[in-house]
Design brief:
Strand order of the largest sheet: 1-2
Strand content: under 5%
Radius of gyration: 22 Å
Helix content: over 70%
Oligomer: single chain
Distance between the termini: 55 Å
Length: about 270
């Protein structure tokens, strides 16, 4: 399977790939390896980037290295997403991306990627991940999803593609990719205006992008549709407070406080 070619990069031959990747894998997969050896292996992997079109194993090994070194899950996710971009039909990469999304709390993105892994799986991936392993992860999410989504104020969506897109809006916001967040959020709301969790994230992205009037308009619409959602109330209190409209912030803050007290006492 071919990866996406980068300018100035050449394909990494099988023999060269084995020469570079096998000793690195031996270090990374050895539980007794010290952190210094892992760091050296990681640097060697990174030095290969840009010089070659790298095989799928490269991305998995970098993920293992970062995990071994205790790096933040967002760093690991960036490598997993880069692997998916280069090898979109590699089941093992999609499985690893799904597992990383799950660890980071992106439940619906994890669900989507695991389904992609299941659809892409072939016998050649059997040594890395089995179909049963992928199915087990999917079943775990399906059994936990109603409770987890209810705690976020959502119902389990019947349209998984829409649900994953909504979660991608949240991920764009958390990464600071405001333009992407706004574009995708507006596309979703054009078709499904009742998606309040998307509208709340869109309002935050608009606010942070300096489009304050639009942010307030969307947040007011969100609260009109769902007046008891704490995320929307928190946004509105922040918007009003920052713009020195404390008289408008007070009723929203009082309502949020009352809801929180009811939840705590309940």
């Amino acid at each position: 399977m071919k990866g996406k070619k980068r300018k100035g990069a050449s394909p990494l031959s099988i023999s060269l790939a084995e020469r570079h990747l096998r000793p690195i894998a031996a270090v990374l997969l050895d539980e007794s390896s010290d952190r210094e050896a892992v760091q050296e292996s990681l640097e060697e992997l990174m030095n290969m980037e840009g010089r070659y079109i790298l095989p799928p194993e490269y991305y998995s090994l970098r993920m293992i290295a970062l995990s071994t070194l205790g790096r933040d899950i967002e760093d690991i996710l960036k490598i997993a997403e880069a692997g998916k971009d280069s090898y979109p039909h590699d089941a093992f990469i999609r499985f690893n991306l799904g597992a990383s999304y799950l660890e980071a709390g992106y439940l619906l993105l994890a669900y989507r990627e695991l389904h992609h892994a299941l659809e892409s799986w072939t016998q050649k991936e059997a040594d890395f991940v089995s179909m049963d392993q992928i199915r087990d992860r999917i079943r775990d999410i399906e059994s936990e999803a109603p409770e987890l989504l209810a705690s976020a104020g959502l119902e389990w969506p019947t349209d998984q593609k829409l649900a994953a897109a909504g979660e991608q809006v949240r991920r764009y916001l958390e990464l600071g990719a405001l333009d992407e967040c706004i574009t995708l959020g507006m596309e979703i709301l054009d078709d499904r205006p009742e998606q309040n969790h998307v509208r709340n994230n869109l309002a935050r992205a608009l606010w942070e992008n300096g489009r304050m009037t639009e942010a307030v308009t969307h947040q007011e619409e969100s609260l009109r549709r769902a007046p008891d959602r704490l995320a929307g109330l928190a946004n509105m209190v922040r918007f009003c407070t920052v713009t020195n409209r404390t008289d408008r912030a007070r009723p929203w803050a009082d309502h949020a406080r009352n809801l929180a007290m009811k939840t705590k006492s309940g």
